[in-house]
Amino acid sequence: MWIGGCSRCCFLKSTIISFLLLTLIECEVIFLTPHSEGPHLLPFCEEFKEKCSFCVPCGLQLADTTQTAVVRHFGLQILEHVIKFRWNNMPQQEKVQLKNCAMGLLSTGTYSILEEESHIKDVLSRIIVEMIKREWPQHWPDMLKEMEALTSVGEAQTELVMLILLRLAEDVITFRTLPTQRRRDIQQTLTQNMESIFSFLLAILQLHVDEYQTFLFCAHCRVGVATLNTLAGYIDWVALANITNDNCRLLEMLCLLLSETELQLEAAECLLIAISRKGKLEDRKPLMVLFDDVAMHYILSAAQPVGAGVVERHYTFLKRLCQVLCALGSQLCSLVGSDVEVEVPVNLSKYTEAFLAFTTHPSQFLRSSTQITWGTLFRHEILSKDPVIIQMTIKYFRATMTNLVKTGFPSSNDSPSCEYSRHDFDSDEDFNSFFNSFRAQQGEVVRNACRIVPLEAFQIAAEWLQYQTSAPIDIGTTVCTCSKTAEGLCSILSPSVVQWDAMTFFTESVVGKIFKNVEDEKLPVDQGIELLQAVLNYNTQDPLILSCVLTNVSVLFPFVTHRPHFLPQVLYKLFASITFEVVEESKAPRTRAVKNIRRHACSSIIKMSRDYPQFILPCFDMMYNHVKKLFSSEALLNMLEKCALMEALVLISNQFKDYNKQKHFLEELMATVVARWTSDEMRRVLWDPALFLDFVGADQLVAEGTEHTTGINRSRLSFCVYTILGVVKRARWPADLEEAKAGGFVVGYSPNGAPIYRNPCSAQVLALLPNLLALIRTHNSLFLPENMCRLSETFSKAYDMIEVEKNMVLGLPQPALDIYDPPVYKTHLERMQGFFCTLYDNCYHILGKAGLSLQQDFYTIEGLAEQIVGSVFVSLDNMPDHRLRTMLHILLSHYGEEEEDESCEENQEMLEEQLVRLLTREVLDLSTPFSIFPFLVMSYPVCVEEEMMSTESQAVTVSPAQPTGELTELGKCFLKHEDIYMTLLTISFTSLSWKDTSNCHRSASIVCWTLLRQVVGGNLLPEAVTWFYTSVLKGLQMHGQHEICNSALTQLALLMYENLRPRYMELRAVMTQIPNITHSSALDQYDQRLLEPSSAQRLGEKKRKDQFKKLIAGAVGKALAQQFKKEVHIRNLPSLFKKPKPEKRDILETSESGALAALFSPVLDDI
C-alpha cells in the first residue's frame, strides 16, 4: 500500500476520495448522466487528476483487481497522468515507490491472460513505458533484466512485457515523441542491447510456440501473437545483422509459423517487414535464404486454399503472403546482377509458380498486387533472359487474358471473384475504379513482357481476336431496355462486351510493341493483314462491340503500311462508322454508345492522318470528295464530327509541301466559315452583348419538351469557332527546312540565322481574328449586371459550372457504369451551359495557339497588345472564379509549355473554396514560368523535399549551392517595370499565407527570394521590407505545423533577415513582436554576430540556422489538434554517449608506435 511517509489522516483522506470516485464510476454517472449534468462531472474528474495531492494512492486503490474493469482503467489512467505531468516535481523516494507499485501491478495486479481486458493491459504498459522514457537507462539500469524476470511469473506478465517493449519502440523510433537527447539515449541503449533483446524475444517465441503446439493452450498462443507483434515493431529499424543472425534463425522460425493457423498472419507481417528492408546490398544478401527448399516449401504450403468460402482472417493472411512474395521478388531484382554477386536462385521456378498462383487467384485484389513485381522481373536485364522467366512470360499472358475480363462486381454472383470483392470494395463504383487502374497496370506489364517474347505474345493476341470474331454475341441477362431502338443490344456488362473489351485492350498492348521489338523482315505482316481483314469484314449493329472493332482497326493499321492496297478498305470502314445509327432516320436522341462510335471513328481518322499523313496522301482526293458529300446533308453529321473530318484533311494537306496549293485548299475548306463569320449579321451579334444573348436564345423563356428555335444559331456559331481552332492547331509548314524552302514556306531568316516560316492558314485566320476578339470581349461583358438581368428565368443559371467541371474541381470520380445505355436527353439549361463553357474555352485555345501557329504574322498585327487588353481583360472583376481559372489554365498550357438545401450549400461552399485554391495556384503557375527558368520550377521542390526529409537543420546561405532560381529574359523585362515587378512580388509573398500548402512551399522555396534578391541592392522602402518579412512570418503562422513548409519558410526568413537586417533596423522591430523573444538576449547576440562578420563569435551555418529557428519559434503556428494539448515535458538525463574530444597534441610528438620524426631518422637509411 502507498503510504509514502504520509500520516494516517492523509491515508484516510485518500481512501475516502477513492471511495467517492469509485461510487461515481460504478454508478456510471459519468457515462450515463443526463446531458445537463455531464459537463460538470467530467471536468471534476479531470480537475481531480490535475490538482489532487492523493492521486497516486487513489489510483492504486481504484486499480485493484477487486474493482470492475472500468474502475481499474480509471485508476490506472490517474497513475499514467501523474507520471506524464507530475514526474519532474516528485521527490525521488516517491518515484521509486511508484515504480515499485507499478511493477507490482504487472506481477500480481492483473487477471490471467485470457481473462484480462485488453484496455487494462494497454494502460498498464503505457504506465511502465512512461517511466522508462524518463528514467532509463541512467536511473533504471536493470530495466531489461526486470522485464525478463517478469516473464517467468506467467503468461499474462509475458504478454505485458511484450506490450511494453513494443510501445517503447513505437514511442522512441516510430512516433519520436521524446526530446532529441532522451530519444538518442534510449535508442542507442536499445541498439547496444539488441542482440540480447532479440535472443530473449526468440526464446520466448520458441518456448510458447512449442507449448502451444504440444498442449494447444490458448494462453501460449496469445503470448506468441504478442511476441510476433513486438518483433514487428523492431524488425523495421534494427540492423539487418540482428535479423539474419544465427543462420537466419528468425526468418526460419517465421517461415515455420506460416503453417500455424493462429499465428500465420502475425508471422507473415514480420516476414514482410524483414524482407522489405532497404540498406546495403551486401547486408541484404542473406535474405536470399528464403529461396531455399525449406523456406519455399513452407511459403508454397501456406498459400494453399483452406475450405470453401472466404474466411476473412485467412484472406488477410493471403494478402500479407502475397506482399511477402512481392518483396522477395524486389530483393531478388536488386541483388541479381549487382556487385554482391548473387546468382539466379535454383528455385526460381518454384517462386514464380507460387507467384503466378496469386496472379490467377479469384481475388481481383490479389491479382493486382502481383503486377508491379511481374513488371520488375520482365524489365530486369538478367532475369528477363532466364529460361524460367521466359517460360513464365507465356503463362503470364494466358493469365492476363482472364484477368482483363471485367468480372467480380460486389453486387453480382456471376464469378468466384464476387465474394472476395465484397470484402474489398464498398460498391460497384469502387470496384470499377479499382479495376480500371488494375487494367492499366496489366497493360504496362504486358508491354514489358512483349520485349521478351514479342512474336509469341502476338500469336496469343491473334488467337484471341480470331476467336472473338467467330463467336456469337451473348448479350447476357443485363440488356439495354432504355428505349425501343436499343432492344436486344448489349449493355456494358454483357458477356460479349467484357470479352471484346478485354481482348481489344490486350491486342492494343501487344501490337503496339511488336513494331518496336521485332525487325521489319521478321514482322508477321501476313498474319496481321489477315487479322485486319477479319476485323474489317466483321459486321455488327451493336455499338459497344463496334467500338472495340474500330479500336482493333486502329491497332492493326500499321500493318497496312506494308500492304498499301488495303488502305481504301480501312477508310470505308471508318467513314461508314462516322454515320452509324442503330435505327436509320430515328428521331430519338442518340444513345451515348452511338455517339461514342461516331466520335471514335472520327478520332481514328484524325490519328491516322496525324501519324501516317504521307501514307494516306494518295487517298486525299477520295477522302475530300467523300467529306464534301457528307457535308452536303445538314443533318447527317453534327458539328464536332464535321470539324474532326476537316482536321484530318488539314493534317494530310500538310504533306502537299506547296504553300500556294495548301493555301488554296484551306481557302476552299473554310469558305463557308469565313463567309458566315465575317458577315454583317455575325459582326453585329458578336460585338453587342444584348444581340448576342438574343441570337443564342439565352433571353428567351423555353418550356421543357419544346424545341428551342435558336439551337441552330448556337450550333453554327460553335462550328465556326471549332473550325478556326482546328485549322490553327493543325495547319503547319514542312518540318524539313529544304522542303519548306522549296515549297515557298520560308520568307526570310532571323538575325541569328533561324528560318522564318509562314503558315498557309495565316490569311484566313487573321481575317477572322477581329470578330474572335470581339466575341471574347462580349463574353466577358455578359457578367456585367446590366447583361446578367437579360437572362430569362429558364437560363438564369446558364453561366454556372457544369457538373463535369464541378466533379473535376472537387476530385470526384465520374460515373463509369451504364453510361452507354441511356439516350442523351439534356435540358435546355444543360445545353446552354455546355454551349457557353465550350465556346469560352475554345476562344482561348485559339488565342493561345495563334502565336505558335501564325508566328510573326500574329505578333506583327498592328495594335495587338491593345486589342488583347481590350478583349481578354475586360470586365474581369465581374467574372466568376471558374471562368478566370479557365483563362489562366489555357494560357498557361499554351504559353508556359434544409438537409437537402443545407447539403447543397455545403457542397457549394466546398466547391468555391477548392475553386479559389486552384485559381490562386494557377495564378502563381502562370507568373512563375514567365519570370523564372522553368526547369527550376519542376525540379527544385523535389530536391527540397528530399533534403528536408533527411535533415531539418540544413544551412541556408546565398551561395552557388543554393538553387534559388534565375530570371528569364521576360522576367528581366518585368524588372524594368516597377509596377509589374512589385505586383509579382506582392502576389508571391501574399501566397505564403494562402490556405494552400503547395503554393506556400513553392513560393517560399523558389519564387520569393528569386524575385526579391534582384532588388535587394536597390532602394526598397522600409515599409516594403517590413511587409515582405511580416508576410513570411504570417506564412509560418499559417503553415508552420507542416515540416516541409516550415523548413522552406524558415530558410526564406533567414535569407531575408541576414541580407536585409544590416540596412533595415525595422526588421528587428518585427522580430521583437514574435512571442517569447521580447526580453531575450538571444536576438542581441544573433544581431551582433550578423552585424560584425569578423567577430570571433561568428557561428557556423548549421548552428546559425538552429539559433534563428529558436528565435522565430514563437511565430510558428500549431495544428488545431495541438493548440489546446497539454504539453508533456521530459527532462534530459546526463548523456551516456558523449564523444570524447580529441586531445590537441603536437603532430611530431612521440607515441607508442614511434614518432613521426622517426620515419626520417638516419638510422632507417640503412634498411
TrEMBL record:
<dbReference type="InterPro" id="IPR016024">
    <property type="entry name" value="ARM-type_fold"/>
</dbReference>
<dbReference type="GO" id="GO:0005634">
    <property type="term" value="C:nucleus"/>
</dbReference>
<dbReference type="InterPro" id="IPR045478">
    <property type="entry name" value="Exportin-5_C"/>
</dbReference>
<dbReference type="GO" id="GO:0042565">
    <property type="term" value="C:RNA nuclear export complex"/>
</dbReference>
<dbReference type="GO" id="GO:0006405">
    <property type="term" value="P:RNA export from nucleus"/>
</dbReference>
<feature type="domain" description="Exportin-5 C-terminal">
    <location>
        <begin position="901"/>
        <end position="1124"/>
    </location>
</feature>
<dbReference type="GO" id="GO:0031267">
    <property type="term" value="F:small GTPase binding"/>
</dbReference>
<keyword id="KW-0732">Signal</keyword>
<dbReference type="GO" id="GO:0005049">
    <property type="term" value="F:nuclear export signal receptor activity"/>
</dbReference>
<feature type="domain" description="Exportin-5 C-terminal">
    <location>
        <begin position="312"/>
        <end position="893"/>
    </location>
</feature>
<feature type="domain" description="Importin N-terminal">
    <location>
        <begin position="47"/>
        <end position="105"/>
    </location>
</feature>
<feature type="domain" description="Exportin-1/Importin-beta-like">
    <location>
        <begin position="118"/>
        <end position="271"/>
    </location>
</feature>
<dbReference type="GO" id="GO:0005737">
    <property type="term" value="C:cytoplasm"/>
</dbReference>
<dbReference type="InterPro" id="IPR001494">
    <property type="entry name" value="Importin-beta_N"/>
</dbReference>
<dbReference type="GO" id="GO:0006611">
    <property type="term" value="P:protein export from nucleus"/>
</dbReference>
<dbReference type="Pfam" id="PF08389">
    <property type="entry name" value="Xpo1"/>
</dbReference>
<dbReference type="Pfam" id="PF03810">
    <property type="entry name" value="IBN_N"/>
</dbReference>
<dbReference type="InterPro" id="IPR045065">
    <property type="entry name" value="XPO1/5"/>
</dbReference>
<comment type="similarity">
    <text>Belongs to the exportin family.</text>
</comment>
<dbReference type="InterPro" id="IPR013598">
    <property type="entry name" value="Exportin-1/Importin-b-like"/>
</dbReference>
<dbReference type="GO" id="GO:0003723">
    <property type="term" value="F:RNA binding"/>
</dbReference>
<dbReference type="InterPro" id="IPR011989">
    <property type="entry name" value="ARM-like"/>
</dbReference>
<feature type="signal peptide">
    <location>
        <begin position="1"/>
        <end position="27"/>
    </location>
</feature>
<protein>
    <recommendedName>
        <fullName>Exportin 5</fullName>
    </recommendedName>
</protein>
<dbReference type="Pfam" id="PF19273">
    <property type="entry name" value="Exportin-5"/>
</dbReference>
